């Protein structure tokens, strides 16, 4: 007897699963997935460690592996390096450190110059902005004064018109 999930959802029937059984199955599937995800890397490490290097059963004397005393005696690079004394090595290291320090100083000075240039540019832009704000503020004050003068003049003309019999139509309707 085969039940399709969609048929179960579309036509509810009496053949439903017990919620406890469903929960148990889901818990088992979850545990299986966790064991699979966690267990695989552990097993892989163990199998890799076992397969990578087998034990070596050799019975070798340590004398066979000793390095001869004259090793590198005929190598010109090795001879040149060994002939250098401590003072020469230290002076070379100091000169290398000086070169690194000079390079760092040069980069730092270039960054400082760039920063000063950018700072100067932004300072000029801020001064322009401040000048524009002052101009706008002066224009706003002039416009406000002109509006006050215009209102005074309008009030004067309105009073004169009322003296000559004019009535404000707007006030009658409100």
TrEMBL record:
InterPro entries: DUF1068. The chain crosses the membrane at residues 20-38. The keyword Transmembrane applies. Keywords: Membrane, Transmembrane, Transmembrane helix. Pfam families: DUF1068. This is DUF1068 domain-containing protein. It comes from Camellia sinensis (Tea plant).
